[in-house]
Amino acid sequence: MTITDRPVDNGVNVQALLGAREALSGAPEHAQFTWRAECTWRNGTHSRSTVTSFSGLGAEQQHRTSYEFDVDHPECFASEDNGATPVEYVLVGLAGCLTAGIASVAQLRGIQLRSVTATIEGEMDILGILGADPGTRNGFEGVTVRFTIDADGSRADLEALIAQSQKRSAVFDIVANPTNVLVELA
Amino acid sequence: MTRITAVIIGAGHAGLAMSRRLTERSIDHVVLERGEVANSWRTERWPSLRLLTPNWQMRLPGLGYAGDNPDGFMPVADVVATLTRYACLVGAPVRTGMTVQAVRADSRGFEIRASGDVIRARAVVLATGACGLPAIPRIADAVPARMTTVTPLSYREAGQLPDGGVLVVGASATGVQLADEIRQSGRPVTIAVGEHVRLPRSYRGRDIFWWLEATGLLAERYDEVDDLTRARHLPSPQLAGNPQVAITDLSRLAARGVRIVGRLGNITAGVAQFSGSLPNTCSLADLKMNRFLRRADDWATAAGIDGELPPPHRLAATRVDPRSPLELDLNGREIATVLWATGFRPDHSWIHIPGARNRLGHLDHHGGVVTGAPGLYVLGLPVLRTRASTYIHGAAADTEAIAGDLHRFLGRQRQ
Predict the structure, then answer these.
(1) Domain of B36?
(2) Average pLDDT, chain B
(3) Domain A85-177: which topology?
(4) pLDDT tens-digit profile of B5-30?
(5) Which chain A residue's Cα is nearest to B194?
(6) Do A178 and B276 touch (CB under 8 A)?
(7) Does residue A84 surpass a pLDDT of 90?
(8) Do residue B287 and residue A163 have CB atoms under 8 angstroms apart?
(9) With 90 as the cut, is the pLDDT of residue B413 above it?
(10) B60 and B195: one domain?
(11) Distance from CA of residue A184 to its chain's centroid?
(12) Is B181 helix (H, G, I), strand (E, B) or coil?
């Protein structure tokens, strides 16, 4: 066992998270969040989405700044490739969510991280979206995430870390489980 | 109208043990029982069920296991016989056939209405158990109406089910046992698996409950466990009361021809959708099991008994098909029955005491002492006071502590 004086610091304020869990358990209405994005069509398959505000903790909240995301399709789809494809944003979301979870759980468990990288792949048979094969779904056939982690922890510790990050991940849940989706004309 | 100091509702193991504790303290009381002693064991358990805990662990105040098979597991009929004997042994003042309709409280104490009688008492102990009602998720409403739905309370044997496939929802002890039993009847079985607890029946030559007790895990107090809400809602371990079967886990079910799918997420237009999180759900269960086995090994080393035991080992990781089906059409002929092995919840609907419930409608209690209703106590719930509270033998310590509190409560009232 290595004993160091330096406290584990993954840059995650675990006390704040634990405090929020405690506080929100007593005020569940403040735990109701709404996340939102605004999307504007540019041209062709290109659109630009903006993320600025969300609601939660009983009030409207603002990001520090507004974030823009160009969404398009690659040239081999006869598009202009002005940005990542929508499905790649899903992968980005999943990777970001799991990685945030790994940092938080590691902090909570006293595991110092030095580097965390992930390769994330979604397999898709595009006969689905082309409507060429009714038996093929539009979405991913499967998603694989492979983490490489350099940290002060055994392999078993790191396996437990990635298992727990999946368990507490919003995007993992969104991708892995059915969600009611309503799309309507304003 | 009857007046009495204390009323215990329910003559199962917890209610009877509590009766013994009150008798020890000369507190006059009555045990109200809607049916016969051990009623839910008589009427709400399938006959092939055996206790998960070994016979030697069947310990209640004033009763130890005295049979010739301490390492066996009691079938339901033996549990009924044991509790019936125990009721006589402790001289419990049981009034059978008394169904409680309502418990109310006012400044003078409690009023209990039961089968035409009105009883006034200064203290009430709820011992009706944790499994009064099946906890069925709301999506059950979306199951096509032509299908047969069964709960563990209504299941008796595979023969009662129509021919055709069975979807077992939930992979607790109940889920895996019934999936296995129904599969043996020849019916195709699919089991939907959410968070679950995997444990081997025995480890290094000792039953797993020996380890759970020896390592001190079962003695962990409710106010010491990391996450009490989680601990109280943990599914029962995938075990069966059968020393011949090394493990009753998903790998065994798969080898016996049961199809394993992820947690049931939704039913849309009669199509059941399962979560893609199955591999992680299994990883979490394997990790948790291995953490406990490591704790067991560490404990054995510290206790200096490694020499008496076979060497440590680990079980193979659960292997599930990473491409397990995500959908199952309930409209077709393939599946005829849905069995909700999704847990239980206590039935406290007849307690009409403002302040006894939290905003979710559950009784709020600290180790069985109901907050917001002085003089009201509850027994026999998972991790009520310790992790052992979930099991029969936990009632020994729980009733001792609660009887002590009840006694002090009566003393304070007199002042």
Answers:
(1) 2-132+346-414
(2) 95
(3) GMP Synthetase; Chain A, domain 3 (3.30.300)
(4) 999 999 999 999 999 999 999 999 99
(5) A167
(6) no
(7) yes
(8) yes
(9) no
(10) no
(11) 25
(12) helix
